[in-house]
Specification:
CATH architecture of the largest domain in chain A: 3-Layer(aba) Sandwich
Largest sheet of chain B: none
Distance between the termini of chain A: 40 Å
Strand order of the largest sheet of chain A: 5-6-7-3-8-9
Order of helices and strands of chain B: HHHHHHHHHHH
Chains: A alpha/beta (307), B mainly alpha (265), C mainly alpha (281)
Number of helices of chain A: 11
Structural class of chain A: alpha/beta
Oligomer: heterotrimer
Shape of chain B: globular
Distance between the termini of chain B: 30 Å
Strand content of chain A: 25-35%
Strand content of chain B: under 5%
CATH superfamily of the largest domain in chain A: P-loop containing nucleotide triphosphate hydrolases
Number of helices of chain B: 11
Bound molecules: adenosine-5'-triphosphate, magnesium ion
Largest sheet of chain A: 6 strands, mixed
Chain lengths: 307, 265, 281
């Protein structure tokens, strides 16, 4: 096993009294693609910022590429590419100038930056907008430019905080493809996302975080095996009657009561549906499907659970 | 290889930041050129020529004209105007409205370099404004002594002495109109009661003290010593220099401190 | 009112309502709703700005009236009377502050709301028309301007700088001046797209501020320059207010008022037209 590029041990971040990240530990191997999942406010972005060496940890240990970010911020940041959750492009500059200026901060020569800027504009499909003002771009185009900007220094680790939020399906698939290729070249990826399909596609391994703590860790498939059944039955009775129906279906399998439907976890979805009908209930709609990461997420991040 | 890159950024990072800011300035080239040229001509004409026709008071030693009296103060005021704008709006802009500082902070740059680079940029901006002012003053015949050339660094130093405003800006997270308030309650009195267009001694004592506190008064008086002085004892001239230096350096150090904390929050 | 209402079912009425020149498309008689929102916003967020705005002209008055005043000879007013410099410059500062307040509210403030807050987009998605928005925003600026003007006049009274009873008329005059600047400012702003263009406004205000007979009489200038200065709105404002506070009343003041009436009409026309084009077409 090669030495990990990121090692966090009991990593903690407090804002005054409030603990945003509460003693999490994880390791990321070189070339690995590592995901952080969790509900809003779980502490994902805070963790990303500590890993990005722009937020000082309150306690615990953190090592990025063998450096302690408290002491070697510039050394670490010179090898990172960062896509923050909120774009922070320079809206007073034009599209291509954003890349040029940013490249300078890594001490790259103008010639190198100019060449990479053009390649990256192609990658972000913004070549024809090179001279446009950033403010005139659409939300998704700004996102693509932010991602392109993060690659200007050919980073060893790429930190992506909800990279595809706001992208259209094509752009999303293009980005996935590009991320796969970066990974093949050995770039380490750390990303957060609220799209479970994205996490399943992109991540070799992921952690589910809630309230600043790690709830589970593992490869997507393993997490599904471990925290969910093989199949899920989704039944709807109409918003008014879901709660009442839920009482009657108790015992068939683990239940998840969502505002619009009930999820019943079972190894045999069709069998579960037959049992629901046998108990005298007629759902408006029903669906049997395989378990997904979303089920793991719902289970671990504490919805109303009725076991 | 990467270590070479970090070394380069460590040495030149602040200049990269200044370069970025200058690049941004290009967008505003039109108004900046117009303001840089137009302001000195207008002010020197309005006060040095127009108002001068009404002035009866004694302005300085020998044949010093009212024009020569106001000119050094107007020059210093121009630098202060640039400073106040950059220190208040420029800094908050970078942190908040157009958060380029956060972007810079995820590169190898340090917070200190970001502030230093901004300072370099502001000095360049002030230098341009002050040099143009000086040239226009020469054209108006407002500078009797060759020592008047030192008004250029004096003007820049006076502008830099307003850098505590940058520290103030850097503490703002939510824009609740602190700027207009700061502008009106602090910057405006410091500018108006600073013996620029009339000697400070014309003010009643209960307003004069504001002038003593104002870097602009110290800068204006210093400029006058250079342009047609001396009009005051040497110790007072030294006080002016020290006062300006303390504010310029103190404000800068405080800003670096606050920005570092803010960017690594 | 109801008697003049056209029958909505009639064919003419339908055409009229849809026609782009229809007043109903522009104005729903509810500018006060816009004003109400402005007051609420003022009260809940930026009252310190409003409050400290009072100090601004007073600082100017203290510095220039007292400091500069004791340093400068007396000035002759338009009727040939000698008046102290402080009494000469105070009304000019008053007019300038009315201008500045109105310009700030109608330019930067409006610009931000149009481009960042998207406030007007929201307003015009309701029954409000562009003229409601324009009048509502301008009334807010006027209300604030009048409050500042009153505070300033009181300070002038205390310092003995109001030389005549007619000074009390300076208050309505200020409102007219502010109205002129606000409506023209808003009209121009509605056409501007970038910060750079906004900076030009500030730049153009500077010569007006310095040269409009604010600090010294126009007679200092050669004839040609005098003529150009007399075309500028601030000169008319300064002359009007100065005539009232010093008591040098003259028929020409009606001409100044006419100037502002035209300015108001032109400003409102362009603002309404532009808001309509921007948000309703
Ligand atoms: N600068 C700050 N000061 C105070 N509290 C903060 C700060 N930044 C984040 N927090 C708090 O820390 C918690 C975690 O925030 P964080 O941004 O890391 O969440 P997240 O997991 O990224 O959520 P999301 O999915 O919504 O992006 C939140 O409760 C947030 O309010
Ligand atoms: Mg987040």
């Amino acid at each position: 096993m090669p030495a990990p590029v990121i090692t966090a041990t009991a990593l903690t971040k407090k804002y005054k009294e409030f603990t945003a990240v509460d003693g999490i530990s994880f390791e990321v191997a070189p070339g690995e693609s590592f995901g952080l999942l969790g509900p809003n406010g779980a502490g994902k972005s805070t963790t990303m910022r500590m890993v990005g060496a722009v937020s000082t940890r309150t306690s615990g240990d953190l090592s990025i590429l063998g450096f302690d970010p408290d002491e070697f911020g510039p050394e670490i940041r010179s090898q990172l590419g960062v896509v923050p959750q909120a774009d922070n492009l320079d809206t007073e500059l034009r599209v291509r100038d954003n890349l040029l200026v940013y490249g300078r901060y890594f001490g790259l020569s103008r010639a190198v930056i100019a060449k990479r800027a053009d390649e990256l504009l192609d990658f972000a499909q913004l070549a024809d907008r090179a001279k446009a003002k950033v403010d005139d771009l659409s939300g998704g185009m700004k996102r693509r430019l932010t991602i392109a900007r993060a690659l200007i220094n050919d980073p060893r680790i790429l930190l992506l905080d909800e990279p595809t939020t706001g992208l259209d399906p094509q752009a999303r698939h293009i980005l996935w493809d590009r991320l796969f290729r970066l990974k093949e070249q050995g770039t380490t990826l750390v990303l957060t996302t609220h799209y479970m399909d994205e996490a399943e596609q992109l991540c070799d391994r992921l952690v589910v975080v809630d309230k600043g703590q790690i709830m589970a860790e593992g490869a997507p498939a393993a997490l599904i095996r471990e925290h969910s059944s093989r199949e899920v039955l989704e039944v709807r009775f109409g918003s008014e009657r879901n709660a009442e129906a839920a009482e009657k279906v108790e015992g068939i399998g683990r239940l998840e009561l969502l505002p619009d439907r009930i999820l019943i976890y079972s190894e045999d979805g069709d069998g579960a549906l037959a049992e629901v009908v046998r108990r005298g209930l007629t759902p408006i709609t029903s669906l049997v499907r395989r378990s997904s990461l979303e089920d793991v997420f719902l289970r671990l991040t504490g919805r109303t659970l009725i076991e | 290889m990467t270590s070479v890159i970090t070394t380069r950024t460590r040495r030149w990072g602040a200049w990269y930041v200044a370069e970025h800011r200058l690049r941004t300035m290009r967008t505003y080239a039109g108004t900046i050129v117009a303001t840089t040229l137009g302001t000195p001509i207008l002010y020197l004409f309005a006060f040095g020529v127009g108002l001068a026709t009404l002035v009866t008071g004694n302005v300085g030693p020998g044949g010093t004209s009212y024009l020569q009296f106001v000119a050094p103060a107007l020059l210093a005021t121009a630098a202060v105007t640039v400073g106040a704008e950059e220190y208040l709006l420029g800094i908050l802009m970078g942190f908040k409205w157009n958060p380029i500082f956060t972007g810079m902070n995820s590169t190898p740059l340090t917070a200190r370099q970001i502030i230093d680079g901004t300072a370099i940029f502001i000095i360049i901006r002030m230098a341009i404004v002050v040099v143009v002012y000086y040239v226009v003053m020469l054209a108006f015949g407002a500078v009797p002594s060759p020592w008047g050339l030192t008004m250029i660094p004096i003007g820049i130093l006076t502008g830099l002495a307003f850098s505590p405003l940058a520290a103030f800006s850097a503490t703002i997270y939510e824009d609740k109109g602190q700027f207009p308030v700061m502008q009106r309650v602090v910057v405006l009195p410091l500018t108006l009661f600073s013996g620029t267009v009339f000697p400070l001694t014309q003010l009643p004592i209960y307003l004069q003290w504001i002038g003593w506190l104002s870097p602009l008064w110290h800068g204006s008086e210093l400029g006058r010593q250079a342009s047609y002085g001396p009009t005051e004892p040497l110790w007072l001239t030294i006080v002016h220099v020290v006062y300006l230096l303390v504010f310029a350096l103190g404000g800068w150090a405080l800003t670096v401190h606050i920005a570092t904390k803010r960017l690594n929050k | 009112m109801s008697s003049v209402r056209v029958n909505p079912a009639g064919p003419d009425a339908a055409v009229k309502i849809r026609g782009s020149g229809s007043v109903r498309a522009l104005y729903s008689g509810n500018a006060s709703a816009v004003l109400g929102r402005g007051l609420l916003a003022t009260r809940s967020t930026n009252w310190t700005i409003v409050l400290t705005g009072v100090f601004e002209p007073i600082f100017y008055l203290l510095a220039l009236g007292i400091g500069l005043g004791s340093y400068v000879q007396n000035v002759t007013d338009p009727l040939g009377n000698q008046i102290p410099y402080a009494a000469y410059i105070a009304p000019a500062l008053l007019a300038v502050s009315a201008m500045n307040g109105a310009i700030y509210d109608s330019t930067w403030n409006v610009f931000f709301k149009m481009h960042f807050g998207k406030l007007y987009e929201g307003m015009l998605a309701t029954r409000l028309g562009p003229l409601d928005v324009a009048l509502g925003e301008i009334s807010l600026a006027l209300l604030r301007g009048a409050a500042y003007g009153l505070a300033f006049l009181v300070v002038m009274q205390v310092l003995g700088l109001n030389l005549s009873w007619s000074a009390i008329l300076a208050l309505p005059a200020l409102v007219v001046i502010a109205f002129g600047f606000a409506s023209l400012g808003m009209g121009i702003t509605s056409y501007l797209k970038t910060f750079q263009q906004m900076n030009w406004i500030s730049f153009l205000l500077l010569p007006m501020f310095l040269l409009s007979g604010t600090f010294y009489p126009l007679s200092v200038y050669p004839q040609v320059i005098q003529f150009f200065v007399q075309l500028l709105p601030l000169w008319h404002g300064v002359e009007l207010v100065r005539g009232l506070t010093t008591g040098a009343l003259a028929p020409v003041m009606l001409l100044h008022l006419l100037y502002f009436a035209v300015m108001i009409a032109v400003g409102l026309f362009f603002t309404t037209r532009r808001l309509r084009a921007l948000f309703l077409d």
